[in-house]
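Students often ask why we bother predicting the structure of a whole assembly rather than each chain alone. The short answer is interfaces. A chain on its own may look different once its partners are present, and contacts between molecules only exist in the joint model. In this exercise we take two input lines together and write out one structure for the complete complex. Read the inputs first and try to guess which parts will touch.
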Amino acid sequence: MLLKTKKLMKAFGGLKAINKVDFELPANEIRGIIGPNGSGKSTFFNLVSGVYEPDPGSYIEFDGNDITNEPPHKVGELGLARTFQLLRLYQDMSVINNVMSGYHTLVPYSFIDAVTGRKKIWDQEKTIKEEMMELLSFVGLADYAELNASELSGGQRRLLVLARAIAGKPKLLMLDEPAAGLSPVNVDNLMKILMRLKEKYGLTLIIIEHILKVVMDTCSKVTVLDHGEKIAEGTPSQIKDDNAVIEAYLGKKMDDEEMRKALDV
Amino acid sequence: MDKFKEIIRQYPFLGFIIAFIILMLVPSVFFTDLYQSHLASLICINIIVAAGLNIVKGFCGQVTVGHVGIYAVGSYTAGCMFLYLGSGLWLTLPAAILIAGLFGVAFAIPSFRLEGPYLALATLGGGEAIRLFIENGDFFMSTYGISNIPQPIIFGVPFDTPDKYYYIAMPIMLIAIYFSFSVLRSSVGRAFMAVREDPISAAASGINVKKHKMLAFVLSAMFAGGAGAVYAHLPPGYIHPNNYTVIEMVTFLAMVVFGGLGHIWGGIIGAIIITIVYDLTRPLYEYQLFIFGLTIVLTILFMPKGIGGFIDKYFIDRRFKTKTGAMSK
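Now the answer. The structure tokens for the assembled complex follow.
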């Protein structure tokens, strides 16, 4: 198992945002996480990536390491990358610097080397830059490398966030609504790039997404959260027919025709 | 020209050697009296402080208003070492850098939890506390100040006049600029910027936010401490607590803000301009704080990236033009 949580819990005051979630993810899988707004999907991400501290009794394991109470940068170093719903781009940095700072954990020289400014650093920096330019051209942003990230369009920003997360060569990539606010053409484009990146870097993916078409098409398995609890898990077709899921989303059982319409937004 | 650029890029040290030679020649060509040499030394010192301040404020995004306190620590380390041990600049400079670095650690700790104006208040308090501590301490000669701090003697030649002291301050400034360049152009500098732009996202990329805040504070404190020591030995070698007030802090901030936050050359140009303006406006002493405060406000309002922003824009525009030109061909 690449990622494993046991009895994961997080309460904000009286509200149990995540309530005893057991989650297991083998390597090389694409997992979708769906659920209505406020069901705890993003909280789940924040707990796993160390942004929030889980409540006592929780256990999170990543790649054989106990990361339950590790700070976010430790988790990042272990090879767990994530994106944010609100992107959190480095607005006032150039596109190439955005991606290069994602490479931070793999930089081969030490701090002392950096301060003394030895020549070998400049060579290594050049290699890093070339590698990152390659990644940028892979997602189609190479022409914008020197621009500020704030000058990109919405769709380009989503691609940049993706590139930045992948720059550190993670084992697991967690995407928080990667396609939110994109037009259908752009969504397809993004998903194509994502699948190519997965092939190229051997990624394992967890995707939170509200566009169910994306989840149903790309994910091999889907986990459904509602009110902080895991209510279903299975292949997309199983999930489609799961009564608990349908109830959480729609409130009642519909006939096939109506449901297909509702899911196929 | 392109070939020259390529050589500079390959051997970054070379550029500094060229700059050194040029700056060595500047006094004999341009300076007509001792006052100009004095001003040039002062500019060198302020460039060191501005380069340091740019690390923590411009690159790491931590608002610190206590830097003048660390600058004072550097000066008084040098002053006290002379007073009690009789040391010269070559001993007091490393000591000042070291002790200022320790004070940098102390100033970094509030930044772990505080942000923006709150951090500014905390560091302002810290800086003022250092000055008041010095002003009221007999050990530091309180309000008498420490005088007659000697200038270094190299191969029997005393550098005891302003025109000679320039040749001490200038190389130290170049070394400082060299260090700031190497740090800020490396992955550490990128990590600083990432912490400035978004600490949460930086942490998710594996950047240790606290460690880099600490690094930024300590590095910039070392710059300020070194500058303080060089200032203490500046002829006539006299330091007084009144040289380290909020007014000085505002001038330092004005240098970095006017020059361009997060822009290495901008900070340096800002230091040159503001030092000269500061000296020209000395007769208007009571309005200085107002002038530099207004400079900061107006800069932030109308050119948030300072002079550095214009430099960047010029180069990006030019590159863009050549690129599109090549495309149309």
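Check your guess against this: Chain B touches chain A at residues 9-12, 178-179, 181-183, 185-191, 193-194, 196-198, 200-209, 215, 219, 262, 316, 319 (CB under 8 Å).
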